[in-house]
Design a protein that fits this description.
about 300 residues; alpha+beta
């Protein structure tokens, strides 16, 4: 049984505001001092998430906050711990790694495995593919977090075992990824793994866009030139005629784009919808012209 502060959202907001003002500490000092991430301290101070008794005690000790003016109440919550199933490399693990390399991360605190996306354009993909894939592979449930002011969403699993498995088995960087990413050597074992990895990478961090009025391009951008070169090599290994610059990887011909969708089989509905519209109408719809509310309901 774990215990959490239960004084109501407004009272918790006032408490955190008062602690911040009286301590003189920055929010960074506070979240690092109690061992949570930046997003979690936001949820605490906005009253949207209960803080555990253990974290609250660390916070009060860190800030020397007097408790004379507030009555603390706690509620007990029983947690069911889900132990992940750990597998050897297979095609779906390769796809999940592509998803992480595209728009995922391993958190610095709390052993969070996070996949991020646009809360409108990627909602259906996260709910119908990312979360079920995690459940199928590792036997554990995900949770969704939405940041409406940024139009962002996150699919999150908190598991020390899974976090360490990804970091140690595949040398995936913890925290900041830029300049530290290399495609895992296991991906090079066969073409199925290569296609699956590139599928996950494209679904999360790639796109099909309008090139000219009646032409399209499949596109991937990375500010990490070493990683971009490794991705380029995977495409070449699979026989794609792909063009690359310092930060971009792309191809334009209808034949290459058709081959891409046929062989890699992307799963993100926003990409499939845009490609379907291109085939039917000869024009790729722009992001701002797509009704994602309709897409998330009907696709």
């Amino acid at each position: 049984m774990a215990y959490y502060l239960d004084i109501g959202g407004e009272a918790q907001v006032k408490l955190f505001r008062d602690i911040k003002q009286k301590s003189g500490l920055t929010w960074r000092k506070i979240w690092e001092g109690i061992g949570v991430g930046r997003s979690m301290i936001y949820f605490y101070r906005s009253g949207k998430c209960h803080i555990s008794k253990e974290k609250l005690e660390k916070l009060l000790k860190l800030t020397n906050y007097p408790l004379d003016s507030i009555e603390l109440k706690f509620v007990g919550i029983k947690h069911t711990i889900q132990e992940p199933i750990i597998q050897e490399m297979n095609e779906k693990i390769a796809e999940f790694l592509g998803i992480l390399y595209g728009d995922g991360c391993l958190g610095n605190h709390g052993y969070a495995v996070v996949v991020s996306g646009d809360s409108n354009a990627d909602l259906l993909y996260h709910k119908t593919h990312v979360a079920p894939l995690i459940k199928e592979l590792f036997g554990i449930d995900s949770r969704f977090k939405f940041e409406k002011n940024k139009n962002e969403m996150h699919t999150i699993v908190s598991s020390k075992v899974l976090h360490e498995y990804i970091a140690k088995k595949f040398y995936f960087p913890i925290g900041e990824k830029k300049g530290r990413m290399h495609i895992p050597t296991q991906i090079y074992e066969n073409n199925q793994y290569k296609r699956a990895f590139l599928r996950g990478l494209f679904d999360t961090d790639g796109g099909i866009h309008r090139h000219h009025v009646k032409s399209a391009q499949v596109h991937f951008t990375s500010a990490d030139p070493v990683f971009l070169k490794e991705v380029f090599d995977l495409y070449k290994d699979l026989g794609f005629n792909v063009r690359t610059t310092d930060e971009d990887l792309e191809f334009f011909s209808r034949e290459e784009i058709a081959k891409f969708f046929s062989e890699l089989k992307p799963k993100n509905p926003k990409h499939l919808y845009k490609y379907q519209q291109f085939l039917e109408k000869g024009i790729v719809p722009r992001h701002r012209d797509i009704d994602y509310g309709w897409l998330n309901t009907n696709y």
